[in-house]
Structures are given as C-alpha cells and as structure tokens.
Amino acid sequence: MGAAAKIGRGAIRIANTLVNVSVLAAILLLLAFSGYAIWDSAQVINAASPVQYERYHPTIESETASFADLQAINPDVFGWLTVYGTSIDYPVVQGQDNLRYINTDARGRHALSGAIFLDARSSPNFADFSSILHGHHMENQVMFGEIGLFSDRHYFEARRYGMLYFDGQEHGLEFFAFAHADAYDRQVYRVGITKPEEQQAYLDLLLEMAVHIRTDVLVSVEDRIVLLNTCSSDSTNGRDILIGRITAEAHGNPFPAEEVRGLQAIPIIDVLPGLWAQIGLWGQISTAVLALLILLAVILLYTKRRHAPREVRYEIRWQRR
Predict the structure, then answer these.
(1) Which of the two residues, 236 and 22, has the higher pLDDT score?
(2) Running DSSP on this structure, what letter comes out for residue 306?
(3) Secondary structure element (H or E) that encloses residue 12, with its range
(4) Which DSSP helix (H) or strand (E) runs through 59?
(5) Of the candidates 143, 56, 55, which has an alpha carbon nearest to the alpha carbon of residue 105?
(6) Separation CA 227–CA 239 (nearest Å)
(7) What's the rounded mean pLDDT across residues 3-32?
(8) Is the pLDDT of residue 278 over 80?
(9) Contact between residue 279 and residue 204 where contact means Cβ atoms under 8 Å apart
(10) Do residues 136 and 231 make contact, with C-beta atoms less than 8 angstroms apart?
(11) Which of 87, 153, 221, 280 gets the highest tally of CB atoms within 10 A of its CB?
(12) In the beta sheet, which residues pair with residue 177?
C-alpha cells in the first residue's frame, strides 16, 4: 500500500470519527437540554400552584401560618381571590408599578409565574368603580390559565360566583360577562373612572364587547366591578377578561374540592428558585466542568473502541498481501 493511500485512509478514518463524535455530542447535549427543560417547566408550574398558598388562606385556621403571616412576609399582599369551580385561589398583591409582579410571586420571590396583582393605577382595596386584576395565562390551569375556558358557554354558565377577601372580610363575586379584548385598547383598560356618565359608558362598552352575558344580573354604576385579565391563546395581543361585580354577600363554594380540576393533582413543594439558581456560581461552574469531563470521557471511550478493531484489520490485510 502506498503512502498516499495510507494518508487517504487515515484522513477518512479521522473525518469519520469526527462526524460520529459530533453526532454523539449533539445527541447527548440535546438529551440534557430536553431533560432540563422538562424539569424546569415542571418547577415553574408547581411553583404557581394554588396549593402553595393554601396554608395562608384567610378562611383556613392554621397552626403554622395565616394570612397575617403572608402579609408579614410581603406587605404588598392585601387580599385574596377565589373563583369557584376553578383552581384560581390566590393571594392578591399590588405593586408600585405593573412590572413588579410579572416575575415575582406573592411571597416576594422571583418566579416566572408571577402573582395575581391589582393594577397599580387602581385604588387599593377595590375602592374604584372598576378594578383590574392581572395574572399570567399558564399551562396546567394554574394562575389565570382557566380564564380562557370561560369562552365556552357551558363553562361560563356553570361558574357564576367567587370570593374576594379584603379589608379583613370576605366579599362575594358574581361574574356577569366574559369578553375578548386587545391589550392596547385604552378604552377597556381604564381605571379611576369617577363620573357617573363615564362609568355607564364604560359598562356599556364591556357589555357590548362581551362574548357571554348573564342577562339576569343587573349591573349599574352603583356597583363595583372587577376585571380578571389575562393573555389569550387566540392571538398575540389578545386578552381574555372575566368580569364580575363585588357583592356584600359572600356566596358559598358549590363545588366540592375533588371536582376542582388540577388542584389536588399538584404536589406541595416549597416555592424556591430552580436548582440551577440555588447552587450558586461556583456550583454552576463545577457542574458544567463535571458535565464536560463526563462528555469527554464518553467521547474518548467511543473513539478508542471505534479505532482499535480497524487497526487490527488493516494489519491483517497488509500481512496477507
């Protein structure tokens, strides 16, 4: 065999090895990334579960925590929202601006799920004619992930009441409309409307754009209304809005706990940052180095096994010739 042939065969072997190693490395990295993405998504969803706040519920007697304890942790907590027949059962906060609780939970910790928060422009304790509550539309029906389901007529009809806790007492919520809106519609997202004629015009606007309306609920400017606002899955700037009025009578929950979809299925965990954030900078560096060493070891082992048999075969063939 000539020198040129040997060089050619060697180059082919090297190129083949590089391709195989690259493919193997890409597969391993893809598997690692996919596993982390699944784990991280589960952490975000679990952190947003209403079960995380069950111990702080103002109507639950607890020896370990209470609503006052949650307020001590985060003074921005001032109320509680429950929508009967759903998993919406969360504390309500209000920040200095509407960005504060986009990625911060009700305990003041960083969380992609954020919190249910009252629009920063609204008067505290729902003193205005209209108030807006914002929340993320999330998978597994956590946070405001179920608001969009009210677009179904039967779902809307079956879920009429909720509870709004503020000023140290429970208030009723009666949902009378569901609407779609654009996020940049300033007429819809108005607050601080004080003139009766403007309040009536605003109420008429909501009813006109509503997809579903309860005709047996008479709402007037004497009422205080609340808009539960979240992103819509139908369009980029679309918003789903469940609209209710505050009532003096707090209606009981007609849905047994076991019928609330998803609420009992999510395990209770402490709401902490992801594991990657918890281990700190040096922990992250050490983990990355360890992963790299493991990857190199796998590559070297694969390369060694790939080359050894071929070298033997080539020696045998050369000797026969």
Answers:
(1) 236
(2) H
(3) helix 3-47
(4) none
(5) 143
(6) 11
(7) 67
(8) no
(9) no
(10) yes
(11) 87
(12) 213, 243
pTM: 0.70
Nearest to 85 by CA among 6, 2, 7, 154: 154
Structure tokens at 252: 């009981």
Cα–Cα distance, 110 to 105 (Å, whole number) = 6
Q: CB of 102 within 8 A of CB of 138?
A: no
Question: Could you tell me how many residues make up the chain?
Answer: 321
Provide the pLDDT for residue 280.
53
Residue 122, CA distances (Å) to 102, 227, 235 in order: 17, 12, 26
The continuous run of DSSP H or E covering 29 comes out as helix 3-47
Closest residue by Cα to residue 48 from 95, 96, 107, 1: 107
Which amino acid, 170?
E
Q: What is the pLDDT of residues 130-158, one digit of tens each?
A: 999 999 998 777 899 999 999 999 999 99
**For 98, phi and psi rounded to 5 degrees?**
-85, 5
Rounded-to-integer distance, Cα 1 and Cα 122, Å: 86
